[in-house]
Amino acid sequence: MPVPVNLSASDITATSVRLNWMRWTPLQLFLAGVLGVWFDPSDLSTLFQDAAGTIPVTSDGDPVGLMLDKSGNGYHATQTVSAKRLIYRTDGTLHWLANSGTGQFFQTNAIDFSGTNKMTAVVGLKKESDNSTGIAFEFSEVSDFTNGSFVLFAPSASGSNSYRIFSRGTVLSAPVPGVFATAPDTAVISLIADIAAPTLTLKRNFSVVQTSTANQGTGNYGNHALYIGMRAGEILPFTGNIHSLVALGAQTSVDDLDRLEQYTANLTGVTP
Fold this sequence. Notes:
With 272 residues, this protein is mainly beta. The protein has a single domain, classed as Jelly Rolls (Sandwich). Helix content is 11%, strand content 35%. It has helices at residues 9-23, 254-268; strands at 36-39, 47-48, 63-64, 66-67, 77-78, 86-90, 95-100, 106-108, 111-112, 118-127, 135-139, 149-153, 162-168, 172-173, 179-180, 185-194, 199-204, 207-212, 223-224, 226-228, 239-248. Strand 13 (162-168) and strand 14 form a beta hairpin. The longest helix has 15 residues, at 9-23.
């Protein structure tokens, strides 16, 4: 026979909040038709060894040629060249895609963010090296010169250990000097940008590191491919692991950003 339990109103509220958080996934950010991507290497049903999606990833060490977008927008990440595919890894608890820094990357089809001047991107990663400039993700081939773009450097320069973000309308804006964290560094990194406002905020592990109100020019974000792990598949390879990546053409509420960062932290092994 169940033992009666007397719960206060505050206990019931706290329990409800915990249950709601446990049920929450990034998909809820896209339900109103918001454009963007959600990549989750812990979901093996979204990973394939070939770019055509005919050979499922099943085991630690498998190459990944296709990673499906879980946002519902269909912006899947592909790599047609076998030697340039990231490698699926797991320790039995966490899951990630490993990039050796020797030319591995993913590319999506062009994502048409031209209807928005706001952006939120949250990534769970492990930066394994500070030896040379690396790009974790970049929207456009070269954000330095391409209008309507954004990027996360990890690290920002050869021999540096900083993360830096750029956002650009018609003018490039970048917080300087970013945040310093010596490799190996496991982190949840957030980019929150608004071209029109203008603001550009960099967060690491739930804390605001820097906010810039420098001019980003005018206009909206563009219609570009998203590159993961390298600039345009040619230079500035990232050395490390990708555990999760969500990017959406909107600014979330404070509560949703917190949910997204905590969700990403769970997949990455970061303790709030």
